Amino acid sequence: MSEAEEAIFQTSTLKVRKLISTANSLVNKLYDAPNGYRPTIEETLADALVLNDYIYVPGGRWVPAHCLPRWKVAIIIPFRDRHYHLPILLKHLVPFLQRQYLEFGIFVAEQANGLQFNRAMLMNVGFVEALNYTHWDCFIFHDVDHIPLNYANYYGCSHMPRHFLSGADRWGYKLLYGGFFGAVTGFTRTQIQRFNGFPNVYWGWGGEDDDILGRIRQLGFFKTRPWGVMGWYNVISQHHESAKKNTARVCLLKHYFERVYSDGLSNLEYSKPNVTLFPLYINIAVDIQHLDWNRSWTECPENPQRIQAAVADAPAAAADKSADAPKRERRGVRADNKKS
Fold first, then answer.
1. Would the pLDDT of 339 be above 50?
2. What is the C-alpha R_g of the chain?
3. C-alpha angle with apex 42: 73 to 48, nearest 5 degrees?
4. What's the CA angle centered on 41, arms 37 and 43, to 5 degrees?
5. How far is 84 from 91, CA to CA, in rounded Å?
6. Can you list the alpha helix ranges (DSSP code H) found in 37-84?
7. pLDDT of residue 247
8. Model confidence over 38-61: pLDDT tens digits?
9. What are the counts of helices (DSSP H) followed by strands (DSSP E) for the chain?
10. Cα first-last separation, the chain
11. Hey, which residues does 278 pair with through a beta bridge?
12. Which is more confident, 241 or 208?
């Protein structure tokens, strides 16, 4: 990561790292503060540096210095154990976004446990936590191994919902299939709230992208996509090991419509995240867990949440819960950017 930081900040690298140290101390105190009135994170991170044509705010937020940006864009990267890929992506993505004169911030939503990877739930966490920093106009959810190749692939908030990928090198710069809706997708804040965020039930590889596409279609949205070379990406092939497949994905996808309004932001729960500011991004490490299975949903036998739901029926289940277990709570955002 040091190499990526030095490539972006150049002679200002040490100055930025010192600013980050101070900012982390302030933000940690804010997260630990009791409920009630407290300054917003945006107010807390008041110190900034002017670097070329941008104002740099600690934690990888960039604001154009000499123009009023049309859009405020949050980049959310679902993440676990891909430390080889992250600096490569950031080294390319930051100048890519600067060329488009966007105001943007980069958030890494990291799954901090050994459970099967849940990309869509991390997308929900990233959305909720990013809104505690400012009112972003739109959110782009970006796989850590996808590198955009064309500056004309505009990451602004127009024409959303948007699938930014028209082809990748590993598929001969074509799509895996016509309805593919993964890797890099974008939505406005209002759209995400309308379709209740993203499904929390997909543990392991596969299915969540198609479920998300079903959600937006069910609410009458239509996806857009760049044509041809404009939407081409290279995929970092080194150190690339896919997550274990979700054996319940076919069943879950078949019944996605049952869960649109009851699985997503509306039932999202997780313990307090560990938030760390780095020069190029804000890391949100979170211990996400399986949520209770809603009895109105069709059960998928191979889904471990069914087992959890059955255990919940046992009279002794409540007594078995440890008082020392991390408290999970419903997470949300108020209009003033403070957590509810």
1. no
2. 20
3. 85
4. 85
5. 12
6. 41-44
7. 86
8. 556 766 676 789 998 999 999 999
9. 10, 15
10. 34
11. 281
12. 208
State the Cα angle at 76 between 213 and 196, rounded to 5°: 45
d(CA 3, CA 338): 34
CA distance 75 to 105: 6
Q: How does pLDDT run across 308-317, given as a tens digit for each residue? A: 444 344 334 3
Predicted local confidence at residue 315, as pLDDT: 39
In the sheet with 146-148, reading across from the earlier edge strand, the strands are 146-148, 232-235, 167-168
Candidates 130, 87, 171; CA nearest to 273 is 130
- Answer whether 211's CB lies under 8 Å from 189's CB: no
Residues in the chain: 340
Q: What does the alpha-carbon distance between residue 136 and residue 208 come to, in Å, rounded to a whole number?
A: 24
Q: Is 315 exposed, middle or buried (0-12, 13-18, 19+ CB in 10 A)?
A: exposed
Tokens standing for 287? 């211990």
- Three-class SS state of 274: strand
Give the residues across from 138 on adjacent strands: 73, 188
- Residue 27 is given by DSSP the state H
Round to whole Å and give the CA distance between 138 and 140.
7
Q: How far apart are CA 167 and CA 255, in angstroms?
A: 29
Q: Which two tokens stand for residue 156?
A: 């602004």
Confidence band for 323, pLDDT divided at 50, 70 and 90? very low
Q: What is the mean pLDDT of residues 58-67?
A: 93
- For residue 57, what is the enclosing H or E element? strand 54-57
Host H or E run for residue 4: helix 2-9
pLDDT average, residue stretch 139-149: 97
**For residue 138, what are the CA distances in angstroms to 110, 155, 277, 285, 296?**
20, 10, 21, 22, 32
Residue written as token pair 């019944």: 255
Q: Round to whole Å and give the CA distance between 91 and 6.
A: 9
218-268 per-position pLDDT tens digit: 999 999 999 999 999 999 987 666 667 888 899 999 999 999 999 999 999
